[in-house]
Automatic annotation (TrEMBL):
Heme c 1 binds at residues 88, 91-92. Its main location: periplasm. Its cofactor is heme. Residues 66-176, 221-340 form the Cytochrome c domain. It is found in: Periplasm. It comes from the Bacteria. InterPro entries: Cyt_c-like_dom, Cyt_c-like_dom_sf, Cytochrome_c_Peroxidase/MauG, Di-haem_cyt_c_peroxidsae, MauG/Cytc_peroxidase. The lineage of its organism: Bacteria, Pseudomonadati, Bacteroidota, Flavobacteriia, Flavobacteriales. Residues 100-119 are annotated as: Disordered. This is Cytochrome c peroxidase. One of its GO terms (molecular function) is metal ion binding. Binds 2 heme groups. GO terms for cellular component: periplasmic space. It comes from Schleiferia thermophila.
């Protein structure tokens, strides 16, 4: 089974690379001058990369719309927690790339901690599903969870959440504007819908996006070297597309396991199996996006590893059966830093 997995990974990598040998027309017209300033090897790598990864799409939404403004306020609303001190932003801090940098996040009263690391809310709208185990289909369903979770925001039920929002005078007009013509717009579903609308704007274009669009100088020499190693090692088996992850599920410890022997995890999490009860989903988790990974430590579903280089080495071993040298790890980490974007102006200025 493990040999078959490795063979498949190798085939995927070779297919990507071989497929580019005759693909000479993929350059965008506006990028030819930038590309031509680099070596043939640099250009070949860029062509391969543009077939494996995609830049972030342009943000095409009205940041002044009533629904967006409502969602922005609700995302930061502490009245949605039992002690009036916690909001979505407590664990998913928008000015900190959507994370709190905690292994697992504390509950509203500090009496307990969640069992899994709080993933970044940035680029979450591009994921195949939400939460590490994919139990929520979309952002709306995801937003409904933490508010009623006893070890997160701690409200008893949807009615309590709605009543708390109705008790704040400003929200009457805000909901009426966001949901025109609706007789009673302050509902739990609409609270979640508005939060999800705000989260769709949490995008942070990075140097790697400029690289994919033809500006090869956006990555320095070590980062381009790290990109090449990232591809050839087989990391692209899971980390591809616009998010470099987030689009599939995979077993942690696919080639070498169990995973906790490598991460030092205190708890053996069964992953998606808890949702599906399917033995094939044992220790399976959603593949995380690598965007802003330099800033979203600690790593893995339980936040068990704080160092990015160590996380890279563990992934190579457990998922690919590869033992990377320190130089290779350092080069990959350099590449991963090119995925660090800028906090968007509409977030930074608020």
């Amino acid at each position: 089974m493990k040999k078959n997995a490795l063979a498949l990974m190798s085939a995927i990598v070779l297919a990507y690379i071989a497929g580019q040998s005759c693909n000479t027309g993929s350059e965008k017209s506006g990028s030819a001058e930038t590309v031509s300033a680099f070596t043939a090897e640099d250009t070949a790598l860029w062509k391969i990369a543009t077939n494996i990864f995609k830049p972030l799409p342009p943000l095409e939404m009205d940041l002044e719309s009533p629904l967006f403004k409502l969602g922005e306020k609700l995302y930061h609303e502490t009245a949605l927690s039992a002690n009036n001190q916690m909001s979505c932003n407590t664990c998913h801090q928008v000015k900190n790339f959507g994370v709190d940098n905690e292994p697992t996040s504390p509950s509203f009263d500090g009496s307990a901690r969640g069992e899994r690391n709080s993933p970044s809310s940035y680029h979450a709208s591009l994921h195949i599903a939400q939460f590490w185990d994919g139990r929520a289909a979309d952002l709306i369903e995801q937003a409904k969870g933490p508010i009623l979770n006893p070890i997160e925001m701690g409200l008893k039920n949807e009615k309590e959440a709605v009543n708390r929002i109705k008790a704040i005078p400003d929200y009457k007009a805000l909901f009426a504007e966001a949901f025109p013509g609706v007789k009673d717009p302050i509902t739990y579903h609409n609270i979640a819908l508005a939060i999800a609308e705000y989260e769709k704007a949490l995008m942070s274009p990075a140097p790697f996006d400029a690289y994919l669009q033809g500006d090869l100088s956006s990555l320095d020499e070590q980062q381009r070297k790290g990109l090449k190693i990232f591809i050839e090692t087989g990391c692209i088996t899971c980390h591809t597309g616009v998010n470099l992850g987030g689009h599939m599920f995979q077993k942690f410890g696919l080639v070498k396991g169990p995973y906790w022997e490598f991460t030092g995890s205190e708890r053996e999490d069964v992953g998606r199996y808890a949702v599906t009860n399917n033995e094939a989903d044992m220790y399976v988790f959603k593949v995380p996006s690598l965007r802003n990974v330099e800033k979203t430590w600690p790593y893995f579903h339980d936040g068990s590893v704080a160092d990015l280089g160590k996380a890279v080495k563990i992934m190579a071993t457990t998922q690919l059966g590869r033992d990377l040298s320190n130089e290779q790890v350092n080069d990959i980490v350099a590449f991963l830093r090119s995925l660090t974007g800028e906090i968007p102006k509409h977030i930074a200025s608020n």
